[in-house]
Amino acid sequence: RKRGGKNGVQLFDSNMVDIARTRLEIEQSIEQGLRSGWFTAHLQPIVSLADGRVAGFEALMRLDHPERGLLPPAEIIGVAEENGSIGKIGDCILSKSIASLAAISKLDGLADSYLAVNFSPLQFEPALPARLAALLLENGVTPARIVVEITEAVLMLDNPLVREVLDALSDLGCRIALDDFGTGYSSLSYLNRFPVDIVKVDQSFTRSLSSDQPDVRRKSRMLVEGIRTISHQMGCAVVAEGVETAEQWDILQAMDIEFAQGYLLSRPLPLEALLEKLDDFAPS
Ligand code: C2E
Ligand code: CA
Ligand code: CA
Ligand code: CA
């Protein structure tokens, strides 16, 4: 299909046709997914490094497509932000994951566990706090058990509306977590300017803690220790993301970091599988 020889002009790039087709497919999947209830929230435990107890869960969006299988957020979110469907998807994830938290709460030792939900900047609209409050009331979940996860991309907009909504969520009693911490341009200044309660150390740092290059290990240890110290001084708890090995767990534990999240503990799971797995974590 590609035309043009050595010096010829390429009339069109078949790759672009593929991209357009894929995008259209994703848009159709989103639209149909919203109509047919294909969107679900998988939940991944967040565990206390001090005693191994499950402290909370992060909701991670999946589109459960009957033919294409489970589509990860990376395929969906960009398109959903562009075509404006992210709001509806976000509401759907919010209501499903809050209902899941209510179910999890019935298990031993998990009555106070928290739910962390990811938000795109485009979901911050004035009506969000009231809608969230209503959902929580309906499900018998207190606002203190909700963590709103945002990335710098949200804060970078420096939009008065974003601040207003964040303040309202914070006033409602929800906590705010700054996701992927350390990967952006000016993470530190956001700790100062916004009501942040939790800092999530990006998984790239966790990975380099156990690098086989001594130099990388040493430097990333200093970085993570620096993030921890600053976070604690600002009154924030720290979650290390992407913990995959026992070695990483041990290093983070020795650093006095509060929480770990990653495949070592559990992959993100659908509610039923998670409820099953949670006995394995149950304090004996
Ligand atoms: P994130 O918020 O940083 O979420 C953590 C990602 O790391 C998740 O990918 C999770 O499955 C993955 N992960 C967890 N533990 C490990 C580990 O030990 N090793 C490795 N390699 N990966 C691990 P996922 O589910 O594909 O989500 C990707 C991103 O999509 C999320 O990154 C978040 O930014 C976004 N996202 C997910 N759900 C939602 C949602 O409901 N709304 C919005 N707006 N964004 C979402
Ligand atoms: Ca997150
Ligand atoms: Ca993250
Ligand atoms: Ca089990």
Automatic annotation (TrEMBL):
Positions of the EAL domain: 23-282
Tree of life domain: Bacteria
- Protein name in UniProt: EAL domain-containing protein
Q: Which organism is it from?
A: Shinella zoogloeoides (Crabtreella saccharophila)
